[in-house]
Amino acid sequence: MIAPVGEASDGERQPIQAASDLSAMSSSRRSGADAPNLIMLIVEPDNQIRGQAARVLCDAGYGVLEASSGIQAFVTFELNPQIGLICTDLCLPDFDGYKLADVAKLRRPLVRIVYTGAIPLARDKLGVVHGPILEKPYSPCDLAGVVRRLLHSV
To answer: What are phi and psi of 82, to 5 degrees?
Structure first.
């Protein structure tokens, strides 16, 4: 199973533990120092991976909402104008992360996009890529770093 990984004390990569309360993370709205009113939308069909990503970003001080499908993500995006960054898996149950990003960028051109998934799969897709692709498995530091760099880019 593809899952985010953490760093062990000896420097070896290992899976990080799933969060115990995903619903609490879904409604977390702590403000990050980088963007005080910015909310991030995590779109990932795997509950454990989505929960881990949400926990990493909440721990970094960002507000986070979650969705498990493209349609759920789009509805969440439409209902929450403060969403300024979407972190989406490339393979979603109803439509892929590229289509989600395309639709989101049409609705709000300033929204930032981070894709997650298998890089070979990403290279085979056609279309515009609106942001960086974070290859799975990724570490919590990788996710937080990509988000931080994207928020500081012009």
So the answer is: -80, -5
Instruction: Please tell me the total count of domains within the chain.
Output: 1
Quick check: is 41 in a domain? yes
Q: Which of 30-58 are b and which e, b meaning 16 or more Cβ less than 10 Å from the residue's Cβ?
A: eebeebeebbbbbbbbeebbbbbbbbbbb
**Domain contains 105:** yes
The predicted model gives 132-139 an average pLDDT of 92
- The CATH number for 65's domain is 3.40.50.2300
Please indicate, yes or no, if residue 65 is contained in any of the structural domains.
Answer: yes
d(CA 14, CA 147): 22
| Residue 138 CB partners (closer than 8 Å, separation 6+) | 4, 5, 116
Residue 123 in this model has a pLDDT that exceeds 90: no
Report the predicted TM-score, pTM, of the whole model to 2 decimal places: 0.76
All residues at 6 or more sequence positions from 50 whose CB lies less than 8 Å from its CB, including other chains: 22, 42, 43, 44, 66, 68
pLDDT at 22 over 90: no
